[in-house]
Amino acid sequence: MRYATTPAKRWGTRIGHFLILAAFVAFTAFPFYWMLITTFKSTLDLVNTKNNPFLFNAPPTLENLQVLFFQTQYLQWVWNTLLVGVIVVAITLLLAVPAGYSLARLSGRWGRQLAIGIFLTYLIPPTILFIPFSRIVGELGLQDSLWSLVLVYPSFTVPFCTWLMMGFFKAVPHDIEEAAMMDGLSRFGAFLKVVVPLSSAGILTVVIFTLTLVMQEFIYALTFITSSSQYTVSVGVPTFLVRGDVYFWGSLMGACLIVSVPIAILYNFFVDRFVAGFTVGAIK
């Protein structure tokens, strides 16, 4: 037996949904609002504890951005980060996609054990690998070079992304590949023209995950790079905008805002595919 829903109940449900959604949007957008308003606040406005921290108590200023762009090498750090990120993404895709496909098609007990072993390597804390990586970087003469980061970062990204792509390729039916090969394609051709397009969500997930890791990694970038012109954003910003007990809060927030907004936009445009890349296989 079904009961009719009264208009008051329907409106109450809609208002409840709206309030929940509004609270969630406010919670997620607040860090960006805080960074934005802090970027354009004057120093006196920031340090005066009597002022309302959520509003402009003095006219907005560009002083913090001037410090960021003209008294630091911020643009160079952004370029270094993007350069390392693009190269590491390319290396990760070249290694993880074929490896994930091979493991997905490798049946039997050995295939499962090998896949689990590759994923477990991702769980090894980076601090344990710090000493051997330092020796390798030193032997290769890559100290104070961005190539040291290009060498090290794939060791973090490839294992997890291989495991991720393996799960995605397993969701692609074998019949599709077999039909493509019956039409004259080789296995490699079927992989490129059929399997890879169907796995675009997983590939996009690999790209976003790798770029995010490169942008936020701090320990290895701080240790292997000593010249300020070679810094990445994660190292250069706190190094030059935190001087003793003096924090350049406006410039710090401006640096974080400029870097985080493009990533947030990227997540927003591809959120459906990104979620699908992490949840593939969870529901059949």
Taking all Cα atoms into account, the compactness measure Rg is 24 Å
Reading the helices and strands in chain order gives: HHHHHHHHHHHHHEEHH
- The neighbouring-strand order within the major sheet is 1-2
* Relative helix content: over 70%
Number of domain units: 2
- CATH architecture field of the largest domain: Orthogonal Bundle
CATH homolog superfamily of the largest domain: MetI-like
| Count of extended strands | 2
Number of helices: 15
Helix/strand structural class: mainly alpha
Topology of helices and strands:
Blueprint: H1 7-39, H2 43-47, H3 63-70, H4 74-105, H5 109-122, H6 130-140, H7 146-152, H8 154-170, H9 174-182, H10 187-198, H11 200-216, H12 219-224, H13 233-241, E1 242-243, E2 246-247, H14 249-269, H15 271-279
Antiparallel strand pairs: 1-2
Helix pairs in contact: 1-14, 3-14, 4-7, 4-8, 4-11, 5-8, 8-11, 9-10, 11-15, 13-14
